[in-house]
Amino acid sequence: MAKAIVEVPKGYEERAQFCHNKVARELLTLMERKKTNLAFNPDVTSANELLHLAKTIGPHICMLKTHIDLLQDFTPEVSKQLKEIAKQQHFILFEDRKFADIGSVAKEQYAGGIYRIAEWAPITNAHIIAGPSTIEALWEVAQPLGNALLLLAEMSSKGALTDTSYAKAAVQMARAYPDFVMGFICQKRLVDDPGLLHITPGVNLTSEGDTRGQQYRTPEKAILSQGNDIVIVGRGIYEAQDPAATAQMYRLAAWKAYEKRRDTE
Ligand code: S5P
User: Fold this and answer.
1) 12-264: what CATH class?
2) Annotated catalytic residue 87
3) Fewer Cβ atoms within 10 A, N terminus or C terminus of the chain?
4) Of these residues, 10, 22, 35, 98, which one is catalytic?
């Protein structure tokens, strides 16, 4: 019997139908409509600066990645305002908390403390080092809210221990929790599953790394050669003289690379 040929869609919006998770569907749809596969992380320490950057870079991005615990002056008003800006400017909030503890602790860290991450960030991430119980505990909090999780499958820093078998384990865990896990933080595409997103940090147009182990490549390499879906850029944008104009440059470079891949793959 002839095998049915299943066409795997390459476009972001068409891929949304393969996602079990609502946040992933929303993200893929807004990326295509807004024509951006750029995520921005303003790793700053002042709430005003964070909110200002969120507003000015907001028109260019699909996702704002935060490290909320870097702020020296966090109050719940900051997360409330971030939520409002994200709604107005059509991007999704991702708190890069990198949960890694046993389930009972991770659950409290996600739901409570002063940051109450689960209440304002539709996306967060977790290491897989402690096994699936971390994911299961976070899911208890996330399920009623409809939040999603990214698994750290590979890291960008020199000497990272995230080798091929580690990344494979992350893929297996993602597949075990399709309603919750929407994809990976990784360096390259790990699996040809249109419903799983590959989101990559370590991207810069002018630098190859920093003095503390970070390693960079261009948006074109990350998307076109390495098959990622979204590039995360931090210092490349917020340390530039004109962050908004620079964000536009990254946006165009990453989007062009996506179009080229979609049309040639
Ligand atoms: O492997 C990783 C995973 C992450 S989430 N390498 C990373 O650099 N990150 C994050 O991406 C890191 O925490 C930082 O917020 C961002 C990279 O920032 P940049 O200034 O180097 O672009």
Assistant:
1) alpha beta
2) no
3) N
4) 98
